[in-house]
Amino acid sequence: xxxxxxxxxxxxxxxxxxxxxxxxxxxxxxxxxxxxxxxxxxxxxxxxxxxxxx
Length: 54
Known about the structure:
- The chain is of the alpha+beta class.
- The chain has two helices and three strands.
């Protein structure tokens, strides 16, 4: 599945701190922050192409 989908992107609501830390523990990084419908979000990304080169 990594070859077909090497990049994972997800959104985490800033009030859901447990989810934020769970995603960080899995290796996701914050790409940006944004607001939608009066809620603040983190856009988090995991790029397997970059990780496999380390």
